[in-house]
Amino acid sequence: MPDVWPPGSATGLGPFPGTDPLEAARIVFAELGDPPGLPFLPELPARGVGADPVGRTATLLAGLHVEVGTGAWRFVTRPGRDEHRARTALTTDLDALEEAAEGYAGPVKLRIVGPWTLAASIELGRGERAVADEGAVRDIAGSLAEGLADHLADVRRRRPTLTRLVVQVDEPLLAAVVAGELATASGWGRLRSYERSVVEDGLRQVLAVCDPDPAGVWIGATALDGALLRQAGAAFVGLDGAVLDSIDEDEIGEAIDAGLGLLVACVPPDDPRNDPRPVTEPVRSLWKRLGFAIGELPATVAVAPVEGLEQLDRAAVPAVLRRTIEAGRYLDEFAADEAS
């Protein structure tokens, strides 16, 4: 069985509504600070430039600098106002985590954007996506690995009582990179595809720096390439619960059989019903189709709200997180009942 999170774990993907980091961190630890909760570092995109996922992760890059261009982040030769703003936002979030986690001794989940999605989202000086340049991609992967190592060390220094840092590496554009489906800056062509071994190596550089803590890859509703993720060293794969009914069962089955955990976003943020059965049905149905031992389900699967939590009114979030906790507990209880 995977050794990523406690059985029946419930967490969030990262984005959070509002603009107050301390309030957000306090809500997360209040609702998810006891088992089976897995608290996470909230991200507040409503703060604007630098609080978005790409800008936030770009500030971790060692020796590389970014600024906001025309509708997108781009690489520049020296740090400027946009990068400073993003660094300040991240530091403020970590300060809030440090305060809210006082007295907490358990795991915490952090999120970054992965090297391939980052390279596909930041432009070079000439206006093309960085992923178009193989040398730039190598620099980004190495720089991100170094910066992530420093980031994890900073979190551990701030809160030595944290027992484990679970790292969620978002790669929603990974499948498009492998398939050569990304459009050029002009929109008239497609960027080159990369050999799977090159994609795998770039991802492995980043995942490896988290060892011995677990790091996995969030792909959402995009195509799953389980073999690539396993060979890159992923400890878990993150999926949108809506795709579980149509996912390639061989791909997901082989990933689970190889010991990968599943992070499934399946709790709707706008459904006030506190009934975990319909919420977890796609997970339970997949598990039955795959034929794995039911007792292994709770340790393998962690649940989270579906994407879009940051669009809610802040006051609605605690109830969503509580429903997520109930969904995790239900999977644990369901497995125990079925196994008995």
Give a brief outline of the structure.
This protein is α/β, with parallel strands linked by helices. 43% of the residues lie in helices and 14% in strands.
Q: What can you see in these coordinates?
A:
The chain has helices at 21-32, 53-58, 81-100, 115-121, 134-158, 174-179, 196-208, 226-232, 249-257, 276-290, 297-300, 317-339; strands spanning 65-68, 73-76, 107-113, 122-123, 164-170, 215-220, 236-240, 261-267, 301-305. With 340 residues, the chain is of the alpha/beta class. The strands form 2 sheets. The chain has a 6-stranded parallel β-sheet. It has a 3-stranded mixed β-sheet with strand order 1-2-4. The chain is globular and about 60 Å long. The two termini are 19 Å apart.
Tags for this entry?
single chain; 340 residues; alpha/beta; six-stranded parallel sheet; three-stranded mixed sheet; 43% helix
SSE layout and pairings?
Blueprint: H1 21-32, H2 53-58, E1 65-68, E2 73-76, H3 81-100, E3 107-113, H4 115-121, E4 122-123, H5 134-158, E5 164-170, H6 174-179, H7 196-208, E6 215-220, H8 226-232, E7 236-240, H9 249-257, E8 261-267, H10 276-290, H11 297-300, E9 301-305, H12 317-339
Parallel strand pairs: 2-4, 3-5, 5-6, 6-7, 7-8, 8-9
Antiparallel strand pairs: 1-2
Helix pairs in contact: 1-3, 1-12, 4-5, 5-7, 7-8, 8-9, 10-12
Helix percent reads 40-55%
What is the H/E string? HHEEHEHEHEHHEHEHEHHEH
Cα shape? globular
Largest sheet descriptor: 6 strands, parallel
Please report which band the strand proportion falls in: under 5%, 5-15%, 15-25%, 25-35%, 35-45% or over 45%.
Answer: 5-15%
Radius of gyration: 19 Å
Class by alpha and beta content? alpha/beta
Residue runs with pLDDT of under 50 for 5 or more positions: none
End-to-end Cα distance: 19 Å
- Main sheet: strand order: 3-5-6-7-8-9
